[in-house]
Amino acid sequence: MEAKLAAGIAATEDSLLLNPFVHHLELETTSEKIKTAFLTIVLLPIRVCLICILLIVGWMLACLGLWGLTEQDLQKRPVTGWRRTLTKWLCILGKTTYRAGGMHVVFKGKQASREEAPILVIAPHSTFLDGGIVYYTGFPSIIVRRESGDNPYIGKLINFTQPVYVWRDDPDSRQNTIKEIISRATSKEDWPQILIFPEGTCTNRSCLITFKPGAFYPGVPIQPVCIRYPNKLDTVTWTWEGPSALKLLWLTLTQVYSYCEIEFLPVYTPSEEEKRDPKLFASNVRAVMAKALGVPVMDYTYDDCKLMTRAKEMNLPNANVIVEVQKLRTRLGLDQTKIEECFIENLSCQDCSQISYVEFSSYLNVAANDGNAQRIFNLYEKNKSGSIDFREYVLGVVGVTENRKTLEILRLAFKIYDSSGKGRLSENDFVPVLVHTLSMSIYESREIFQRIDSTCQGYVTFDGFLRYAEKKAEFAGLFSLSKEELRERNNSIVDNNKVKSH
Q1: Percent of the chain, pLDDT > 90?
Q2: Could you say which of 198, 211, 216, 301 has the lowest number of CB atoms within 10 Å?
């Protein structure tokens, strides 16, 4: 079976790393800008009005379908009778809504029945518009965050699909979700098919990232479903680095037509080995889908998205390529040696703000002819200058590893940017520390430096900054405990009290 040849399509160690979480979209030509402006005035208002009317009607039908049902009823048994008929009308309304927005959907292959494949696996997941596939597949149950179901508007439509809820605040949520998926997929009752986006987050469709194994735990036949958007201007892709959802929606609604292609692949029946190993099952299905899509597979995960988000929130250097850098570091074995952290304790370059590639590879103790090291260097190189600011690289790496707190990262940044080697930062060294750890502006950072250095000594120390920050409300977050820390501290107190009581 083709699925067993997953390794044949997997990315090789020498392949160029793609960043699936970045999407660039700009109207480049004058004609595109004029057309968009014209259709914004002429077409957009009509489409928005039609979509709103159809959504309101759909919401009313969903409210009717949910009338007299509790959430427990929806979780215990599938809806039947007139309520099941109502789902067909909701599908018609949903399809009409997409057509009203200019979306033309083309199908390839044939959807399997629930008896043939209780679970539909959809990939790649690249836009909020992917949700429309529920209307084209007969209103299957979806996996959704509990908070989404609480929404008074869209929540009604979600609840009527009889979704499997994920409780993000519940530590047992993952296991409970898997149990519910297994229960429904193997049930003899007439539940709808379960629709799952196994990637768990949106990408730019340049590759298939790691599939979460949740859909594969039941060990039942699944049907892979591929989604493509073969448009000249990609106005739908919604990633962590790129246009906002509102901009994408505007540009999509101002296109005369937008195309979506949905391909139903043959049902995949797992082997006995795959039934015992959901991760192997997921990997092999991903390989089949990647081959059909003509894209590589890459071992990115949802956790990589969180890593990038944290880097962006802190304004760490080159936050948009942090995930790429981490993957390349893993290939070089630097995640094991942690040589960057050792470098902080003993800065050995006289001017770390401008080092060549040869120096870079030497500091990391890797071969100068290693392509992965060269790629990291290129990611930090500006204007093809032939040099990088090594401090930016080191701070970016240590800032997202070990789940460090902001205060600890700030302390490390003081060391990294200490060109004097004496624990004293000049104004030029101090400014990038606050810019790249606390996301402050250059102007604010210079002003803070001048306030701390009120005696005009020309430098500040880490302790001096802390004394200043402890008195300022805007830095209170540096010294406050997170929810996890508070929980750990409370548990520690409870445990200590138990010990004392005995």
Answers
A1: 48
A2: 301
CB-side exposure of 395: number of CA atoms within 13 Å?
32
Residues 178 and 154 in one domain: yes
* Dist CA 6 CA 15 (whole Å): 16
As for how many domains the chain has, the answer is 3
Q: Which two tokens stand for residue 255?
A: 């296109």
Alpha-carbon distance 53 to 47, whole Å?
10
pTM score, whole prediction: 0.73
Rounded to whole angstroms, the maximal C-alpha distance in the chain is 81
276-315 pLDDT tens trace: 999 999 999 999 999 999 999 988 887 787 777 778 877 8
Q: What's the CA gap between 83 and 304, in Å, rounded?
A: 41
Q: How far apart are CA 202 and CA 216, in angstroms?
A: 20
Domain that holds residue 264: 2-300
Last residue of a domain, one of 267, 283, 300: 300
Six-digit token string for 80 = 């039947």
Each residue of 10-40: pLDDT tens digit?
333 334 567 788 898 988 889 999 999 999 9
Round the average pLDDT of the chain to a whole number and report it: 85
- 158: in domain: yes
| Contact present, 97 and 55 (Cβ < 8 Å) | yes
Domain boundary among 278, 300, 322: 300
- Asked if residue 325 has pLDDT above 70, the reply is yes
Tell me whether residue 108 is in a domain. yes
* 106, β-bridge pairs: 261
